[in-house]
TrEMBL record:
It comes from Locusta migratoria. It comes from the Eukaryota. Belongs to the krueppel C2H2-type zinc-finger protein family. InterPro entries: Znf_C2H2_sf (IPR036236), Znf_C2H2_type (IPR013087). Its main location: nucleus. It is found in: Nucleus. This is Kruppel like protein 1. Residues 32-59, 60-87, 88-115, 116-143, 144-171, 172-199, 200-225 form the C2H2-type domain. Keywords: DNA-binding, Metal-binding, Nucleus, Repeat, Transcription, Transcription regulation, Zinc, Zinc-finger. May be involved in transcriptional regulation. GO terms for molecular function: DNA-binding transcription factor activity, RNA polymerase II-specific; RNA polymerase II cis-regulatory region sequence-specific DNA binding; zinc ion binding. GO terms for cellular component: nucleus.
């Protein structure tokens, strides 16, 4: 039998044992092992950060909302929600984001890339999270439940919008007359009275369009996409 000394797992075959060792890192290469799972690290700082996944420790706290993080870099990214710092800018439409991952996903709007495909109906999506939500239309799962009326929803955004029917919240305001609405699509319908049917505006040249899709195609033309 072959036993891995760090996690005490035993294997009957040598190749299975070797594959398991590789999952931790090559034996002897990284001198700092986790005493809980046996995973090894090249430097103590990485081991310390990893160890928090076992202990649940989150020593880095946001001074604005008190949310805590186990990794300092994650706190730095989170702070931008409060400071409105957006260092990653799209070179097509100039929209800016707080971290590079959001910019990368946003660029798929311009390139047309939709790498996440539903294995049931073949519909494709820009983000993996969108596919997860879509799959619930096939499974019938509705994990987000309204505390006021018990109605279920496939995603948290749907629940948030629905909750406004109970609270009366109206977060969407017309920039011309100041009238507020509970739903963005109702605001768009209202703005037709001010702008005519063209309520979608290009962020580069201010040309207006009747649909969001037409506007996005137009924006691509500015940078040759």
């Amino acid at each position: 039998a072959f036993q891995w000394s760090f996690c005490q797992k035993t294997f009957s075959q040598k190749n299975t044992y070797q594959n398991h060792v590789r999952s931790h890192g090559k034996e002897g290469d990284d001198p700092y092992p986790c005493t809980i799972c046996g995973k090894t690290f090249a430097v103590p700082a990485r081991l310390t950060r990893h160890f928090r996944t076992h202990t649940g420790e989150k020593p880095y706290q946001c001074e604005f909302c008190k949310k805590a993080f186990s990794v300092k870099e994650n706190l730095s990214v989170h702070r931008r929600i409060h400071t409105k710092e957006r260092p990653y800018k799209c070179d097509v439409c100039e929209r800016a984001f707080e971290h590079s991952g959001k910019l990368h996903r946003h660029m798929r709007i311009h390139t047309g890339e939709r790498p996440h495909k539903c294995q049931v109906c073949s519909k494709t999506f820009i983000q993996s999270g969108q596919l997860v939500i879509h799959m619930r239309t096939h499974t019938g799962e509705k994990p987000y439940v309204c505390k006021a009326c018990g109605k279920g929803f496939t995603c948290s955004k749907q629940l948030k919008v629905h909750t406004r029917t109970h609270t009366g919240e109206k977060p969407y305001s017309c920039d011309i007359c100041g009238k507020s609405f509970g739903y963005n699509h109702v605001l768009k319908l209202h703005q037709v009275a001010h702008y005519g049917e063209k309520v979608y505006k290009c962020t580069i040249c201010s040309e207006t369009f009747t649909s969001k899709k037409t506007m996005e195609v137009h924006i691509k033309s500015h940078r040759g996409y």
